Model the fold of this input.
Amino acid sequence: MSRSQKFSADLSSLSNTEQAAMVLMSLDRDQAIAVLRELPPENVQRLSSAMLNLEDYGEGASNRVLQRFIHDAAQASNIRSYSREDMRHMLDDALGRERGRLLGERLSALSSDSQLAKLRWLDAHSIAEIMRNEHPQIQAVLVACLSPKQGSQVLMSLPEGQRQDLLDRLSSLENISSLALEELDAVLSSHLNGSGSELKQQVKGERLAADLLKELSTQQESDLLAALSSMEPQRAARIEAMMFDFNELLSLPSQELKKVIEPLAVDLLATAVMDLPHASRSRILKALSRGRRSELSQKLRHGVKGYQAASVEARDEILGVARKLADLGEIIIDSRKLGIS
Done:
């Protein structure tokens, strides 16, 4: 068994991400920041999560992780780094001056410190805002340089007519010239470096506030909501409504859920669940008594007429009933009081 295999066997209880997190946590703050800056966004998120949730594995495990890192680093120490000038000369020699220049320019445009690389850290809405008023061909080049996942999210963030034109242009692309990449880099630079219109990251503040309040104790939540209500009563009401949505209703214990839905009209229940996933429908059906379950099943089999807006309204009405029952003390809808995580 090689030393690398021995280290892997000794650390089998730790994932590679957890081991990487332990190495980072052994560095001082500035060194750890420098490493994180070189990583792709998805890796930063995974490592940050691992660092926050890492258990105390003791000094022995920490030492073994560091020993493995030192061993692996030593194995790769004979790999020399290339400067951009070294790479340019190598490409010229391998491909000829003109082809080497073109490839070098393309690699430079897609390098980690290029404007394009910065887009990996933005959400789809922000990227769509950047490209919304640019020439359609620039839009197509930009999306072509994104990963398929991020590119699809940007595509769906655009108006429908613009999506269709962009997809048409994308499908007809055969190559991307260095001139197009330079133009795209200049466009992005004007937005990302502040000389263009202000770039805004899309956030849903009321949803963020609702999620934050759910993490607090009930007393802390009550105090903060009361204070907000005295200043912005309508906003406070919307936030409070977001703290208990239909998914949370479905996660209540069966007896609590039954108290809410058993007395309701079958038509109302059918409209509320008509566009929900099968699992959500089943959750409602299982909470009903046998007779009511049969009525609702029959109604759903025959089909329910109505638009999505009607379904949303029906769910809101059911949530209103649940809140009233909670105010009367007949049910508990706060997961913190029920011990539901």
Q: What stands out?
A: The two ends are 44 Å apart (CA to CA). Residues 21 and 49 are 9 Å apart (CA to CA).
